């Protein structure tokens, strides 16, 4: 080199009088304000940019980010939606829109938005994380039964579970529950316990007036004790405190505490033993023996959903032909839930009903009826909002999404869409060609040439970054696809990333030495580099792209390269000699020259 100049990353700003130039200038100010966390000021600048050029989707995306930072999510959603409308094939727009919907707690809409974005960019980390957060938020909502107000004070947690516990603690409550007419009143009261307002309290008062035992049962379910008049008027001596006992010598051993009394009936105890035996057989996959034990348990305790549910589990394991019978049995059990609770309080508790819904969901999932499975899991969550069910619901939703994609696959139809795309491409209708290639990729995402064809259309539409993403995917599927390297070199060339263009063409030529497209493309890049060097003018766009390249930044921060660049300015002859002795340094210098960082005069 005769003399050299080194272009630094500091660039001069062009004075552009067009509206788009003013828009870009306002955008730069908005970006600076956003970086400084001056979000209101940034909004003003981005609004000005939109005023000058309302067709640029990036302006709406940036303003959406500002509104979201200020927690103005409705406005953020409006801008995010407009961004997607202007540029439906830009994944980041879906990130903006989905984030706003997430904070507005519109979880279903947010999930659909993120899924739409992931169809365009399946490996996008922001979209994946956003979808995961939405799904977690959607199913982490607390059980509605736990969100009661002061109106719940009268009935509190009055349900089959609390009633069963009260009966186990208090024999009198158990005696009341043996009265069929009385239990009908209790069942009626439980049936309206989930509704609020004066109606519930009025009915409660009426029932207590008809039968005072109801107040005692409700109080017992809350953990209180209602004493009768004869108990309240017991002799005073009984209520006097017992005098402190005289101190005695410590006993050698403390007497063991008495175990709580088992108030279950003999039939219930036998049924529990039979159920446990059945469970052991089930674990050993001895399904006939397990079925026999569950049948005997049901003879002893027919009004308990858990025994029926376990029997359904065995039926499922015994063959697909039993699936319809399992679904029918489960539905019949659900239809009888209040009758079962009346006959055996707790026999159809919320948790047990939820497990029946889960059993039905499991059958539908095995049958690939994912919509019905999702519906069953959602019903289960209204009964018992358990983490296990939420996880099962997420898994079945993922399985449905995967199944739908697999069902959509059709290589024959993909080829038809590719041919249509080629026809549109030849007619210079690149937007229509891209739509056909989009459909072809959805139909057959493992075909490398489809991504290459779509990249060609995107290049014609000046969407170079999107074209490069498709070409990277193409080469991931087929690393020997030379045409993809030639198209990649062309995309980098149009982006003035000449060093990357040369690299792409060289990789193509390494596979096929005489490839005409790669040879011509490489010659075109070298000619452009020489022209740029001779002009003596700094191409700011070229340098801006180069400085954004991590590889170039790494080179410029390398101590050896820094010393060489300094030597090139102070003693060019010595620098050239050092470069000739070091092939690695020669490669670095070639890339810096191609990137426009080092210039010859």
Strand order of the largest sheet: 1-2
Radius of gyration, CA atoms, in whole angstroms: 37 Å
Instruction: Identify low-pLDDT runs.
Output: 6-18, 141-154, 194-198, 229-250
What's the mean pLDDT score? 81
What's the helical proportion of residues? over 70%
Distance between the termini: 8 Å
Q: How would a textbook summarize the main sheet?
A: 2 strands, antiparallel
* Category from helices, strands and their pairing: mainly alpha
Proportion of residues in β-strands: under 5%
Coarse shape: elongated
Total beta-strand segments:
2
Number of helices: 34
Topology:
Layout: E1 4-6, H1 19-35, H2 39-52, H3 57-69, H4 73-86, H5 91-103, H6 107-120, H7 125-139, H8 160-169, H9 171-176, H10 180-191, H11 198-210, H12 213-221, H13 229-232, H14 236-239, H15 266-283, H16 287-300, H17 305-317, H18 323-335, H19 337-343, H20 350-366, H21 370-383, H22 387-408, H23 411-426, H24 430-443, H25 448-460, H26 464-477, H27 482-494, H28 498-511, H29 516-535, H30 540-547, H31 550-556, H32 559-570, H33 572-581, H34 583-594, E2 598-600
Antiparallel strand pairs: 1-2
What does this structure look like?
The chain has helices at 19-35, 39-52, 57-69, 73-86, 91-103, 107-120, 125-139, 160-169, 171-176, 180-191, 198-210, 213-221, 229-232, 236-239, 266-283, 287-300, 305-317, 323-335, 337-343, 350-366, 370-383, 387-408, 411-426, 430-443, 448-460, 464-477, 482-494, 498-511, 516-535, 540-547, 550-556, 559-570, 572-581, 583-594, and strands spanning 4-6, 598-600. It is mainly α and 601 residues long. A two-stranded antiparallel sheet has the order 1-2. Helix 27 (482-494) packs antiparallel against helix 28.
